[in-house]
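Repro case for the chain-ordering regression, as requested:
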Amino acid sequence: MAHDHAHDHGKEHEHGKENEHDEEHEHEADERELELEARRMLALARIRQYGDPVLRMKAREIEVVDDDVRRLAERMTALMHEAQGVGLAATQVGVLRRLFVFTDAGEDRVLVNPVLTKRSGKTEVDDEGCLSLREVLVPVERPVAVTIEGLGADGEPVKLDLEEPSARIVQHELDHLDGVLIVDRTDDESRRAAQGKLRPQPVLGSR
Ligand SMILES: [Zn+2]
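-- result from build under test --
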């Protein structure tokens, strides 16, 4: 589908209007896009945004993967899709427990108490966005391949060998559980530019 920017590991793209629309379907497509955009905004309103102190806190280990944890994971997975993201950490919904959800090659996954057990020596720099820092896209250097271990939604051990883009997504989400954000991982120049965008905007009409 032409406007699918859902699977771009959290990157936020400008809504470029293409002019090649078939006239007949244009109205319908616009309606659909408006609806998706409205749902995205509603979802983002339920995700903690930069400046919220919870985003800087360290999440606690989960002792038992019970129904509460599974319900949280389901809620987060739905929210991640509505927000058109590819990963979401519990911290981002104000829950300080070590759990995140992400999309791995189109498949939804849940990881409880995740730990990186292997990182490739090879790293790559790529732009990352974050559902908690909407306006920001900054270059972040990360290992291109990782092994991550934890528990699944069923409480059973999970071990995943991941490459890009999933490797990048899980490192980003794991950072959230330690209160680390992409602005901490980028270069000084990009951080300054990002902080300019993140500064609260003056109220219209005020001087
Ligand atoms: Zn994020």
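Ordering looks correct now. Confidence is low (pLDDT under 50) at residues 1-17.
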